[in-house]
Amino acid sequence: MIPRDVEAPLRSLLQGFPVVTITGPRQSGKTTLAKAVFANKPYLSLEDPDVRRMALDDPRAFLGRLPDGAVFDEVQRAPELLSYLQTRVDADGRMGLFLLTGSQQFGLMSGVTQSLAGRTAFIELLPLSAHELEPVGVSPLSLDAMLFTGGYPALYDRRLPPREWFPAYVTAYVERDVRQLLKVQDLETFQRFVRLCAGRSGQLLNLSSLSTDCGITHNTARAWISVLEASYILFQLRPHHTNFGKRLVKSPKLYFYDTGLLCWLLGIQEAGQLATHPLRGNIFETFVVSELVKTRLNRGERTAFHFWRDSNGNEVDVIADAGMKLIPIEIKSGQTLNREFFAGLERWLALAGDQTVAPALVYGGTEAHVRAGINVFGWNAVEKVLPAESRTPRDS
Fold first, then answer.
1. 53-82 as b/e, with b when 16 or more CB fall inside 10 Å?
2. Residue 307 contacts by C-beta under 8 Å, 6 or more apart in sequence?
3. Same domain, 112 and 137
4. How far apart are CA 103 and CA 249, in angstroms?
5. Domain-located, residue 382
6. pLDDT tens across 21-74, in order?
7. Are residues 134 and 253 in the same domain?
């Protein structure tokens, strides 16, 4: 097992909550992490029909056979169990009894928040970050290799080529989740929709254009985006509200959580193709934004990120909340720094200098330094961009 940065926050939360719920995409390492943390407790997967039947047919007896708690994997498959779990942990009174995992936010979060409010904290586990790969010596040797491979643990544990693993992953998990959540019948159209989304990663989301290009209704496109968000395939970055007297873009930007999956959906066959790919800048931006999200989640912190763009085209790629201040972050895929890289940050500082702390530029090189008050970081040091917060447990 590759050690996960989120393990320390997870163990801390187990000291103060009877239940901790780990969410995240399928195959991101939730089960492996839960088994490692609860190595001496029973593990039960509710994907298993026999286990699920026992849990639903006689939930009190099912929980009664677990006096010291357990790991319940894919708990969204048996949401009725959660009400009985509430009664159980209330009667017991001990902390750190149960670890729950789930891969679908729709069924899981609605059930957990209704039944276990105040009794569970949440941890979100995404695929491996570059920071997690480095200490164990399995990091890809170049930026393009990192973008092409992504961070799913199976690609490092089993040494599988991405072009062999991702087709099976999409068929076995993504499409199955879609069938469970929306009863989608036309999988070919859905597959085309996902690929069209991939071509828009790092760009403003235009649902009307997306639905027209795919040949579906606007409402269907919105529903399918929601499913992909619920399954941790992609996410939206909202525009920041600060306008400085200027008109702001109101549409969100679309990002995939994993660039390996993104590259496969774009039809990229090997890392070498990224050097001249027309979407390389968008893929790199997706990588950096997802690494920023992983950094905050792996610390057990909130993921308060936005972007800023006005109607004149002035833009900062990421605005990160840092208490009473804001961290503006610009992202450039080029490996050689040039003056234009800093233009967006300089415009932001001129408008919001007193609201800003630790402005940063992340680029495709590896050298780190400070230039005119702006912290410059290479692609392999994204976790250093964000200063650590005082962590607030994410309870329900």
1. ebbeeebeebbeebeebbbbbbbbbbbebb
2. 237, 238, 239, 240, 253, 315, 316, 317, 318, 319
3. no
4. 32
5. no
6. 999 999 999 999 999 999 999 999 999 999 999 999 999 999 999 999 999 998
7. yes
